[in-house]
DNA sequence: CGGTTGTTTGAACTGATTCAATCTGTGTGG
DNA sequence: CCACACAGATTGAATCAGTTCAAACAACCG
């Protein structure tokens, strides 16, 4: 049960920033937990295992993924620092993997329960977290269902910039994804994602320096992506 | 505030069936509410309106939908009888419409709050409801992102049969959707949905009598759809 | 019966996939 | 510091799944 004051403070601050009052935030951040370093490329949690853990991402980036009948992968959710994966009854119907090397706080659902009883605000807090994820999910569904490939990629970039809390115009977005991962999120092939990136750059909407992406024309980018940030709260 | 004993008993029973204990179920079903008849084709709730209502579908079928930049519609969720739409902070980022004529119980979030305080089990109950919807959402994301058009339609039919609680082999599934609506769910065009239906029938996987669909080869249908019912609980 | 909504079909087209090859950057060991 | 390996990015050509447009057909309903 490794725990450092530093990491707990990070989580506490994150919870506060997410709108949880101080007392329940302290209780939640103080829960007995491990801090795990997760490497990309190897599965962290497999599909079909029990969902008896609370997780909060301290740093890095996790994804939830599923696989269709023919083995093609679809990433169904992302978890940025401060976001969590809550426990539930039954088994996990998704796998969890890191996109970049990540640090994750992992506690047990059993330890969480008494704290939720003692601090009823936590239930409402979790509820709002889940609602936000649902809104993101809906937006992803619109992307994969109705937007063309350019709009999908642009939308993901804009969403990532907001969720990663970066300033993509001046600093550029430190794009954490490989083109294959973007394909797995947006429901395309990596080949096409590559062509979309080239298009976006040719049109002057973005500029690339290695993985880093600068948003050269934010307004136009948001227009082609039909991106409206309100769903991120 | 129209309310009949009959309808309240329906909701009560539904809540019980969904796993809520008797006392909180009675309290929840007894909340002050209207029973609204919703007609298809005209919007019931518009996007951008406050999410200050609890709704439970008594009969019929509702959908949540969004629209992409070019006005193309994507249905992002369905609500079968016994399923609900919970309140949240902020504005609705989706519209609500009926697929078939529906009866909906509508209460106010303000009335819900004291009842949730008095019956803490309700929070957990709601949480599990939302988790189930999230699992369905993930499955839809895999469909629109990775499955081919045949698998998408087949998957929707199988999911609908389970959620509508019908026996699609002997009785047939009373398919509530127009082909345009199936297209709006699966991210296709109605023309292609039509061709997929014809294909499925030609392959002997389904048989159609008007809107009604009989599943002639359940095992094969589940295989082509990569459908595993566990995510529906 | 006429109007409306939904289904079916055909033909042309196109966005995205597939397959395959090449290129680039980064890290590793000698 | 170079040679090599490896992962990821890029490009081209052929193919195909699904769209688009347009028209015909069927079912339903007042």
TrEMBL record, chains A, B:
HTH crp-type domain boundaries: 147-219
Keywords: DNA-binding, Transcription, Transcription regulation
Keyword Glycosyltransferase: no
Source superkingdom: Bacteria
Keyword RNA-binding appears in the UniProt entry: no
Pfam families per the UniProt record, alphabetical: HTH_Crp_2
Name used for this protein in its record: Crp/Fnr family transcriptional regulator
The organism's taxonomic lineage, starting at the top: Bacteria, Pseudomonadati, Pseudomonadota, Alphaproteobacteria, Sphingomonadales
